[in-house]
Each structure stands twice: as structure tokens, then as C-alpha cells.
Amino acid sequence: MTTSGVRxxxxxxxxxxxxxxxxxxxxxFVELFARHDVQIxxxxxxxxxxxxxxxxxxxxxxxxxxAERWRLAHGSLPDQESLRAMYxxxxxxxxxxxxxxxxxLPGVAAVTAELRSRGIRIGSTTGxxxxxxxxxxxxxxxxGYTPDCWVCPDLTGGGRPAPxxxxxxxxxxxxxxxxxxxxxxxxxxxxxxxxxxxxxxxSVVRTGNEIGLSQEQLNALPDADRAERFRKAEEKFxxxxxxxxxxxxxxxxxxxxxxxxxxxxGERP
Length: 269
Fold this sequence. Notes:
With 269 residues, this protein is of the alpha/beta class. It has 13 helices and 6 strands. It has 2 domains: 178 residues, Rossmann fold; 75 residues, DNA polymerase, domain 1. 51% of the residues lie in helices and 9% in strands. It has a 6-stranded parallel β-sheet with strand order 3-2-1-4-5-6, sandwiched between helices. Helix 10 links the parallel strand 4 and strand 5.
């Protein structure tokens, strides 16, 4: 373990280390609601992204506009029974959909190898439950991403923005204090998780949920449009409390160096 500076980095999964644009979870939520005769947009599905998937479904059901669509389709507003019925079918659907969205993002394998060479531990927290993770962890390992621990909300009793998954990862890796941790993610919930746990918060823009496009779709945008989307995403993340905003994990190492210097100078997140 390093004796100063950054000691651990906790990565989100979709949109951060895998699945450019965080499109797998979105596709699953849109399909889930369609199977229950309610149409939702990709933009609506993205709003609660990063939360425990159970909390995510409930956030969508209690969105006033979606709730009204549900009422028109089913004759009453959604309730906890509606949530239980939907979530019972969500896990197998999410597992099936994710199979098409498991590509490791550019630079992740190289960055995590560099972190390891410095003695910095690596963990992953997610909104997926443990039972959804089989294909994810296998695909990640095959492509060179092997964190010291994977932490899901069902292991800790709650998901983001609560800090429990980071606390669990710290205990699993036996690393502390949390002010030497960096959390990297692509959603508001990731920032909340970091701030509530007392870690540094780094937000990624290009590959993540806030932009929400495949690499091909992003490259096809006019330069001015793409730059404006990035500007708005960075502005949002900084307003939420992100300490740093970067394009992607490929740009992380200079931030790790800067945070390490700040820690060594006595600064805290």
C-alpha cells in the first residue's frame, strides 16, 4: 500500500469503465416499461442513473408524467405492488440486455495497470445487484479490468448516493482513510456517493450517462454541438460537487497525481 497520496480508486461500471454512453441499463429500463404497456424515453430512463436498480425503477414510476401514463394504461397510479411486479422480471431482462454492452472503454486497462504499479487499490461500485454481475465481471476480466472487489447494493443494504458501498469496499480492501480514496463515475449519484463517503469525486463526461451516446453517434455530431454538450455536463457535475471533471478514464492519471499532491499537502476532499 502506498503511504501517502491516493491509496484507492473506486470506479463505477456502465459509462465509466464499460459500455460507452451507458446504454445497456437504459435499454433495459425502456424495455421493462414497454413490457408493462408504458412508453418511456431514453432521456427519462437516464435521470435516476447510478442508483440501485430497484430505486431506479421506483424513481421512474413516481415521475409524475410516467405515473400518469401508467394510470392510463392500468387504471390506477403505480404503487409498491407495481414496483415488486416489475422488479421481479427486471433482473433476467437486465442480464440479457447487458450482454450487448460489455466492451471495456479505451484506456481503462492501461490506467488500472498503472494504478496497480503504484500500489493503489481498485474497487468497483454499481447499481447492479450481485445476481446481475456474472457476465459483467467475466467480460471485464477478459478485457483486462480486474478490480480488487466488486460491490453491489444488495451487499450493503443500500445504493447510491449513500456511502455504504464505498465503506464496504474500503473494509474489503483494508484501506483507509477515505480521504485518500478517489471515486470515478458518470452520474449525479456517483458524486453523491463520493461526497457522502468523504472521498474525492471525479466525473467522466465523454463516455458516460450525461452525454449518453455511442462513440459513433458522438463522433457524428458537429464540433460545436459536441462541445456544448460537454460544457453543460461539466457545469452540472461541478455544481453537484465534483472535484474534477474529465473526458474519460483514459484521462485519469494526471488527476490522480494532482490529488496525491493535494493529500500530501494536507488537503481533504
